[in-house]
Amino acid sequence: MDEIDLRLLSLVQEGFPLTPKPFEYLGGLLSLEEKEVIERLDGLQKEGLVRRIGPILDLRRLGRSGILAALQVSPEEADSLAEFVNQYQEVSHNYLRPNESGYNMWFTVSATEERIQVVLEEIRKSTGRKMLVLPTGRIFKIGVKFDIMCEEEE
Question: Among positive and negative, which fits the CA dihedral 38, 40, 46, 52?
Fold first, then answer.
């Protein structure tokens, strides 16, 4: 990763340009051709430095809401249960975490209130598990910006 990659990462984390040719626009800011911007972002994604480029939506303004839910799963069944839960397009995150209470598979569901209830009930019935459900009460943090261009301290 070079200085240009760092500058590109810094730009796209601040907001992807909503123009007909966003990669060309970014290239103009970095004195690069559109093709090189695309190639660099592709390389950064293949290296695992960029997972995706996409919007962060305000669910409430779209008439939707979100919940955090958790299941108790054994290590042996974690992959198959994660695959089942992840089949729902309304599930955007799914993590396996250590937890003394036993609830160790945490996932988010975002949809209308009615659809959330349908998804949760289907997961409960199909897995035969008790589920911990935590509805969103208040949003405290909706974005993270990393200081990518910082100099190393000596």
Answer: negative
pLDDT in tens, 54-112: 777 777 888 888 999 999 999 899 999 999 999 999 998 999 998 777 899 999 999 99
In terms of DSSP bridges, do strands 65-71 and 105-111 run parallel, antiparallel, or are they unpaired?
A: antiparallel
Is residue 64 located within the same domain as residue 110? yes
In the block, which residue shows the tokens 């036993």?
102
β partners of residue 108: 68, 93
CA 11, CA 70: separation in Å to the nearest integer? 35
In the chain, the largest separation of any two C-alpha atoms, in whole Å, equals: 57
Q: Is 142 contained in some domain?
A: no
Same domain, 110 and 68: yes
Number of H helices, E strands in the chain: 5, 4
Dihedral sign for Cα atoms in the order 130, 136, 141, 142? positive
Which domain, by its residues, includes 30?
Answer: 3-46
